[in-house]
Amino acid sequence: MYILDRYLIKTVLGSTFLFLFIILALYGFIALADAFKYVGKGNFGISDAFYYTAMTMPRRLYQLMPFSVLLGAMMGLGALNSNSELVAIRAAGVATGRIVFSTMKAAVLLGLFMFGIGEYVVPVTESIAQNHWTVKTHGATSVISDDAVWVKDQKTFTKIHSITADNSFGKVSIYTFNDDNTLKVSTLAQSAHYNGKDWILKNIRQSFISDEKVVTNTLKQARWPTLLDLELVDVIITKLEFLSASGIYRYANYLDSNNLDSSQYWLIFWSKLISPLSIAAMLLIAVPFVFNTSRTNNAGNRLMIGVLIGVSFTIANKIAAQFGLVYNFSPIFSASVVTLLTLVTASLLIRRML
Question: Are residues 175 and 26 in the same domain?
Answer without folding.
Answer: no
